[in-house]
Amino acid sequence: MAAFGRTRVPDGVRVVAGGERVLSYAYDADSAVVLATDVALHLPQTYGVARLPWDLVVRAGWTTPVLDLTVQLVAGGPAKALAVELPEPGSLPMVVREQVTGSIVVEDHVVLQAGAGARLVARRTESGEVRWSVVFDKGLDPRDPDLRAAADTALAQLRAQLGV
Fold first, then answer.
1. Cα 101–102–107 angle (5° rounding)?
2. Secondary structure class of 102 (helix, strand, coil)
3. Biggest CA-to-CA distance, the chain
4. Residue 62 buriedness (CB in 10 A; 0-12 / 13-18 / 19+)
5. What is the model's pTM?
6. Dihedral angle of Cα 36, 93, 58, 40, to the nearest 10 degrees
7. Residue 10 CB: number of other CB atoms within 10 A?
8. Between the ranges 8-17, 54-63, 66-75, 136-145, where is the mean pLDDT highest?
9. Of 98, 105, 109, 143, which sits most exposed with the smallest number of CB within 10 A?
10. Nearest C-alpha neighbor of 124 from the set 63, 69, 59, 56
11. Backbone phi, then psi, for 125, in 5-degree steps?
12. Residue 4 and residue 2: Cα distance in Å, rounded?
């Protein structure tokens, strides 16, 4: 047994982490490693992305046995839902939630149309910079130029209010 009841991270998990500090890991339903580090979430390639910096994870939720993620594979790009089945999750869902929440610097919701709107979010990137994003509520088309303009105006107002 390791000191303080901690177990040694297997070499195969360390390889996936690529030198990043491992916070938690579990195996998905296909026995592939899902790994949380201090700067990113690492997923098996079957999910379409191998590494997601925390600022690209828009939302994370846990409903046994599924880790539900909403991600932006490209900063400012469309949101994509991922469902990761974790038969024995350990602390991974809690760590993912903490890291996603911890990346948020500022978050505000603005109404753009008939009670629906967008979340304006500033997140700290792994390099320490702040990246702003606009995440539209379900049912709103982020390609609609009028909605986009209204969201951009709201974002500019929030940034001016905060002095950034």
1. 60
2. helix
3. 60
4. middle
5. 0.84
6. 0
7. 12
8. 54-63
9. 143
10. 56
11. -85, 170
12. 6
Q: Which domains does the chain have, with CATH numbers?
A: 20-102 (2.30.29.30), 104-162 (no CATH)
Closest CA to 154 of 122, 118, 124, 116: 118
Phi then psi dihedrals of residue 28, to 5 deg: -80, -175
Instruction: Give the residue carrying structure tokens 């992305």.
Output: 49
pLDDT attached to residue 7: 67
Tokens matching residue 52: 């997601």
Distances (CA, A) of 96 to 1, 15, 99: 26, 19, 5
Q: Is 80 helix (H, G, I), strand (E, B) or coil?
A: strand
Per-residue pLDDT at 15: 86
Q: Is the peptide bond before 44 cis (omega within 30 degrees of 0)?
A: no
